[in-house]
Amino acid sequence: MIGFLKGIITLKDGQSIYIDVNGVGYKVHATAEVLSKTSADSQSLIYTYTHVREDVMELFGFLHFEDLKLFEKLISVSGVGPKTAINIFSFGNKEQIMQAIVSGDVDFFTTVPRLGKKNAQKIIIELRSKIADKHDIDINSLEKDSNEDVIKALKSIGFSAREIQQATKSIKDNSIPVEEKIRLALKYLGK
Fold first, then answer.
1. What rounded mean pLDDT belongs to the chain?
2. 70 within domain boundaries
3. Residues 117 and 150 occupy one common structural domain
4. CATH number of the domain that 22 lies in?
């Protein structure tokens, strides 16, 4: 298995990069972040996942090791292949994807081409506790919180599940209007 490639990016073609490592060129299916934050003729370190089937060997590349680990979790879900998983990264970064999993946001995943509602639900069911445990996120506080509208508003702005959890816990008075709760949460988060 190839863990990472360090070399010069020679070409980008929309969904892939070509990287020259000591005279050997590798085609790597890349996340949107890799495509946007790297440039041709630049030295880069790309963490890779090697996918081998009977008839083909493919590489999938990431700028951050944590993104690679999340990708591996996504493809561990039956029905989610590496091309679908890499497409998920085109619709959000690692934090947004983890937040969608922990908060049960099926709609986030159904916007990804080739990922239907059934597989979106499988991703959430199979990965929710793994991600919440690893990142110390209390799922129940997100699900059962009386501040559901506040959670949705903060989520739409792009805050992580952990930030949302902390902000909603900081709101002491549940009798105030939702708009005021959102204002207090944003003030807590420094926005």
1. 87
2. no
3. no
4. 2.40.50.140
pLDDT surpassing 60 at residue 151? yes
Distance CA 141, CA 77 (A): 25
Whether 154 and 179 share a structural domain: yes
87: number of Cβ within 10 Å? 18
Burial (0-12, 13-18, 19+ Cβ within 10 Å), 161: buried
Is the model's pLDDT at 138 over the cut of 50?
no
pTM: predicted TM-score of the whole model, two decimal places: 0.69
* Total Cβ atoms within 10 A of residue 2: 15
Half-sphere exposure of 170 (CA within 13 A, CB side): 19
String of DSSP letters for the chain: ---EEEEEEEEE-SSEEEEEETTEEEEEEE-HHHHHH--TT-EEEEEEEEEE-SS-EEEEEESSHHHHHHHHHHHTSTT--HHHHHHHTTS--HHHHHHHHHHT-HHHHHTSTT--HHHHHHHHHHHHHHHHHHTT--HHHHHS-S-HHHHHHHHHHT--HHHHHHHHHH---TTS-HHHHHHHHHHHHT-
Domain that holds residue 122: 75-84+91-137
